[in-house]
Structures are given as structure tokens and as C-alpha cells.
């Protein structure tokens, strides 16, 4: 649980009282590999912190899935747009490995916002970070070649190259697994 506090304190310092309120609402869950944390068409009810494991976000397709994000150890994961609007998700979130999650429900998070001064500050910083990450990815998909997007992973997100199966990595950068194989042959 200390990892969560450390992560939050990168955004803003928490008093012991604020941390006590926040941590009292957290639930630890162990989730097996291949479990769907959020299924397309369902409402996201949790904001989760990945203490251990790997998560994939994707839009299910008839012929193949469109992977668009991942979450790793010490990162938050959620169908955040569904979480904040309380409307059904248009994508699915899947455990790619066994997970240990610390979770907080939508209603409990609303209580934290109401009960603590720091809650809204952390919420704002977290939202801004998610927005910047999403913006960077969208701009890369619009302006960079597939090879450049792949090469950028080495500097921006090396854990993707090391831990993600090639078919998901190809989908993430917007190409087929065969096209990724050709890029990898040219580079190596």
C-alpha cells in the first residue's frame, strides 16, 4: 500500500490524516491472468492501482482487437472515461498477467474528494497526466511512421518491448504483426 502513497505524493504531499482517509477506502484484490477487469458495455466502478502485474486496454473487433494502452506495476488503471461519467465503456480491460490491485470505488472516491482538501488536487494532477499521455499517443499515430512509433517505444516505454506479446505491440502502434516483423528485421 505504501507504493500508492509514494505515487500520490509525486503529485502532492499527503498528511497522515488525509492518507488515513484514502487508505481506509482501499480494497486489495488478487486477479488471475486473462480476467476481464472491465468488459465493453459495462460501467467502470473502480479506480485501481497495479501493485503487481500487467493490464491491456483494447477495443474488441471481429477480426482482431485494437490495443491502445497498457498499465504496469505502480500505475493506476481504470476505464477512466466510464468511471467519471458512470456510462458504459466502449472498450475492454484485461489482465495480461496475474495481478495484485488496490482498488477504490467510485462512491468512495467521491467521499474522499468531499472529505479531504488534497483529494481534488490529486484528482486534477492525475487527470492532467492521463490527458497528456493520451495526447502524445494520438499525435504520434497521426504524424509518425510505424517504424518511428516502434523506435519511440525504446525510449518512451521500454517495458512494452520487454513484456508485451508482439501481436499486442503491433496493434498498439497501429500495424499488423507481419508489418512489425518486417520493421524488426530492418532494425536488427
TrEMBL record:
Domain Cyclic nucleotide-binding: 10-112
CDD domains cross-referenced by the UniProt entry: CAP_ED
Superkingdom per UniProt: Bacteria
Pfam families: cNMP_binding (PF00027)
Name by which UniProt lists this protein: CarD family transcriptional regulator
Origin species: Flavobacterium cheongpyeongense
Lineage: Bacteria, Pseudomonadati, Bacteroidota, Flavobacteriia, Flavobacteriales
Amino acid at each position: 500500500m505504501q507504493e500508492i502513497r509514494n505515487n500520490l505524493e509525486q503529485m502532492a504531499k499527503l498528511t497522515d490524516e488525509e492518507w488515513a482517509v484514502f487508505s481506509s477506502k482501499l480494497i486489495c484484490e488478487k486477479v488471475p491472468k486473462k480476467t476481464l477487469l472491465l468488459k465493453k458495455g459495462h460501467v467502470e466502478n473502480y479506480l485501481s492501482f497495479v501493485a503487481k502485474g500487467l493490464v491491456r486496454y483494447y477495443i474488441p473487433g471481429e477480426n482482431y482487437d485494437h490495443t491502445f494502452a497498457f498499465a504496469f506495476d505502480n500505475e493506476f488503471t481504470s476505464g477512466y472515461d466510464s468511471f467519471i461519467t458512470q456510462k458504459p465503456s466502449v472498450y475492454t480491460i484485461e489482465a495480461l498477467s496475474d495481478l495484485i490491485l488496490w482498488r477504490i470505488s467510485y462512491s468512495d472516491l467521491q467521499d474522499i474528494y468531499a472529505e479531504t482538501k488534497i483529494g481534488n488536487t490529486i484528482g486534477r494532477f492525475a487527470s492532467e497526466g492521463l490527458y497528456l499521455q493520451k495526447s502524445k499517443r494520438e499525435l504520434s499515430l497521426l504524424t509518425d511512421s510505424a517504424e518511428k512509433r516502434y523506435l519511440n517505444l525504446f525510449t518512451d516505454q521500454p517495458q512494452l518491448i520487454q513484456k508485451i506479446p508482439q501481436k499486442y505491440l503491433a496493434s498498439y502502434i497501429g500495424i499488423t504483426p507481419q508489418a512489425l516483423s518486417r520493421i524488426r528485421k530492418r532494425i536488427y
